[in-house]
Design a protein that fits this description.
The protein is α+β, with helices and mostly antiparallel strands. The protein has one domain. 48% of the residues lie in helices and 20% in strands. The protein is built from 3 helices and 6 strands. The strands form 3 sheets. The chain has a two-stranded antiparallel sheet with strand order 1-4. Strands 2-3 form a two-stranded antiparallel sheet. Strands 5-6 form a two-stranded antiparallel sheet. Strand 2 and strand 3 form a beta hairpin. Helix 1 runs antiparallel to helix 3.
Amino acid sequence: MNLFGVMELSATALTAQRQRAEVATANLANAETTHTEEGGPYRRKLVVFSQRNNAFQLALTDAGRAIRGVQVREVVEDSAPPVMLYEPGHPDADAQGYVAYPNMNPVTEMADLLSATRSYQANAAAVNASKQMIQSSVDLLR
């Protein structure tokens, strides 16, 4: 893979990890949201990645190999049932006094956020290293 291919690959990962961080942040922000427009508590979102592979991308080859990358295929809702807490005075309490809260662990969300941030930083470093190598190559040609 040439240096431009490395930059292309890292660029797709930067975009995907940015969206992953945004989803983790939204999950943390809604950790105690008991009522949404759809009704019921906020549902934790999960990011599903897939290999990026479109017709234009397949046309860009390096030594016979297609330059691919990663993309966010979809953002799905977690199917875990909500956590029911007994709070009879809460405005969203049911007839028995239970309130449905999102089923998410803030520690897990923070770990996901940290992982996305570290992955983003690693790919940004790869882009910068590629840019420096390209610049060094240009300097050698002068």
